[in-house]
Amino acid sequence: MLIHNHTLPTAEENLALDEALVEVADRRSLQTDPLNSDLESDSGQEEVLRLWELPSPCVVLGRASRIAEEVNSAACDGDGVPVLRRASGGATIVAGPGCLMYSVLISYQKRPAWRGLDVAHHQVMSRIRDAVQNAADSSDLSLQVQIQGTCDLTIEGRKFSGNALRCKRNWMIYHGTIMVAMPLQWLSKYLLEPPRQPAYREKRSHDTFVSNVLRHASPVDSQAFMQELELQLVATWKADEPWENCSWKNDVDVETKRLLDERYTKSDWHRSR
């Protein structure tokens, strides 16, 4: 697996890059290879783990989310917080400094059982849970990380990681958040209470439902923990091949630019619902 540990300058570029990864990978897998009928080409094996962190607070809608139902637009506009839309499903999130973002590009040709969404959720979230747990243990934090709902990670019943995915014919991108030390007041300020809630939430507000991995009294430095978490994610996914060695990274750059020009820099697209 390739490791792409890099944050682009803007939120729009980072969201476009995630979509570009799955679009290019899937497009390549559908190209006819007369010498390789089972499509086991180089792109069939080059899965990717991407780690990044938004440089400033940003609200990110799910592909089908409705702004009026999920976003406090007045607060976002007043503070200059962008409201953008991603390619994957799921509910609206807030992310920014202190929230590690991960994206995993998965080949169905390599992992055919992962076409089943229940399998994909279990396989991905088990690995993310283990990485967070290992980082906590290495930092001498007494935490018990659990999977609750469809694909949430929690500590003592409070959510610190939400996740979503986009599926193509032969590839999937599964991405999400890991709130390490993010200002939690952003959630109650910029988001409305979500119209769809998991049963374990029990109608709790953002303030009482969501938490960071590192609590207020944590003796662990957030940047040190973030670095340890990145190391654990790389180890858990066995992502030991540098992105620079990717044979199709130039195609990803071109696709990212196209998506930016046609979609991610267009306010009408982000605010279409």
Quick overview:
36% of the residues lie in helices and 21% in strands.
What this model shows, in words?
It is a single chain. This protein is of the alpha/beta class. It has helices at 11-29, 67-70, 73-79, 117-138, 185-190, 206-209, 222-237, 249-264, 267-270; strands at 2-5, 48-52, 58-61, 83-85, 93-95, 99-107, 145-148, 152-155, 158-161, 163-167, 171-179, 241-242. The strands form 3 sheets. It has a 6-stranded mixed β-sheet, sandwiched between helices. Helix 1 (11-29) packs across helix 8 and helix 4 crosses helix 7 (222-237). The model is unreliable at 33-44 (pLDDT under 50).
Low-confidence stretches: 33-44
Number of domains: 1
The structural class is alpha/beta
- Strand arrangement across the biggest beta sheet: 10-11-6-2-1-12
In quaternary terms, these chains amount to: single chain
At the fold tier of CATH, the topology name is: BirA Bifunctional Protein, domain 2
Highest CATH level, the class: Alpha Beta
- The average pLDDT value, as a whole number, equals 91
Provide tags for this entry.
globular, 273 residues, single chain, three-stranded mixed beta sheet, 9 helices, 12 strands, six-stranded mixed beta sheet, alpha/beta, BirA Bifunctional Protein, domain 2
Question: What's the helix and strand layout?
Answer:
Layout: E1 2-5, H1 11-29, E2 48-52, E3 58-61, H2 67-70, H3 73-79, E4 83-85, E5 93-95, E6 99-107, H4 117-138, E7 145-148, E8 152-155, E9 158-161, E10 163-167, E11 171-179, H5 185-190, H6 206-209, H7 222-237, E12 241-242, H8 249-264, H9 267-270
Parallel strand pairs: 1-2, 1-12, 3-4
Antiparallel strand pairs: 2-6, 3-5, 6-11, 7-8, 8-9, 10-11
Helix pairs in contact: 1-8, 4-7
